[in-house]
Design a protein that fits this description.
By secondary structure, the protein is of the alpha+beta class. It has eight helices and 25 strands. Strand 24 and strand 25 form a beta hairpin.
Amino acid sequence: MTTTTEQLADVSATTLLRFATAGSVDDGKSTLVGRLLHDSKSILTDQLEAVEQASLSRGQNAPDLALLTDGLRAEREQGITIDVAYRYFATARRRFILADTPGHVQYTRNMVTGASTAELAVVLVDARNGVVEQTRRHAAVAALLRVPHVVLAVNKMDLVDYAEPVFAAIAEEFTAYAASLGVPEITAIPISALAGDNVVEPSAHMDWYGGPTVLEHLETVPVSHDLTACHARFPVQYVIRPQSAEHRDYRGYAGQIAAGVFRVGESVTVLPSGRATTITGIDALGESVDIAWAPQSVTLRLADDIDISRGDLIAPADDSPAVTRDVEATVCHVADQPLSVGQRVLIKHTTRTVKAIVKDIPSRLTLDDLSQHPAPGQLVANDIGRVVVRTAEPLALDAYADSRRTGSFLLIDPADGTTLSAGMAGASFAAVAEAAAPAADDDAEWDF
């Protein structure tokens, strides 16, 4: 069985879209998601009946569609979103994985979690309030995470008499702000999630708007990319050596292709060792193929017997990432315990986990005005800041701006395995020139 470039082109137009919703408190995120699921007929009858009963018990005459996503008891009692709620649904044109993220400032880390793998973010704004501080925060987080598509959903248009000037002013302000952060594409849509205007069906009250509904945009937004132009990266997960009579000399390196395309006959480099070799075979689902691409799980066979183990990275010889032990990155701190200068951590990058020390925290980002607070000393929960981490062993990292898969990492507490921070290697949108931190004495127990 062989796989041709034509077959590769056929699958490049993906049928799956990952997207996240965000917005300030009471902007209607959960109602929008509920309306989207309800009107696209993506909820089961018993789910709708449960929502109807819960709504009646709260004295509401109509079903509260927000209850479809606000599953925690505290969320229903307070009428807010606390946790990230994931929903899976599909239409005839595309499959979707949706992350409904919280709006409160103290749950910024939850939005980072939900939007970290998203190809599109829907940012809601209450038409009565316009762009507020939390709206700017969410736009900044989307820019930091390099989310390629942002939808501005101006909600509750029914409460401003569906006035076009109100929508136009909000859209202009938000678009200018998001564009200044480097968001590549912004689409503004006027909606009423409660009434269903422009969510799934076009609104009869806004004939001045000629653009797509939210669902139409989600179904048609181009999320495919030229796979052959990506930096090809293959983190090794497992070394396969059956040593059986049938496969006595078989040695393969199994894993999931993180990005790009690999071909039989291609010259590659194994990192961090830097050894060069050639791909002699690719096995996928028990059969040999000539070409494989992200995110396929395959086994690569190489021409030379090289010392390769879990955590090594295979990349094209002429397009390999830099290998470093000094990682400069932007992190969002997600743990309740702070992250401090001098702290010992583990850094998990793709399939590789190594010891490290936080050498410096040069700045903390203030999302309100995007200013940098210099030398904060530590980061606490929901903080976003710049860090410099020194690793015990070299890592092959891409800049996050070039590859979200191989430019991201986690900082982990070595004592109990708690995730401390989510990191993005390289410069952030607000990066400024920072002096290199002076080298500190190595810790006696972490001598590297």
